[in-house]
Design a protein that fits this description.
Length: about 55
């Protein structure tokens, strides 16, 4: 038994956009954000700076 006239809608929340593998894996960013490795480096740099600033006072 099929449900009434729902057509091809598989889920709720609109239609899916077709994303390439590269986009799914974080490439081709629209916002120009940093890659995960760069984010990690920046975080570690900030933590080191805070630690050295705390020792000096």
């Amino acid at each position: 038994m099929s449900r009434g006239g729902s057509g091809n809608m598989l889920g709720v929340g609109g239609t899916r956009s077709n994303l390439s593998r590269k986009t799914l894996r974080g490439g081709g960013r629209v916002g120009g954000g940093l890659d995960p490795q760069a984010q990690k480096r920046e975080l570690l740099r900030r933590l080191r700076e805070e630690r050295t600033a705390g020792e000096g006072s």
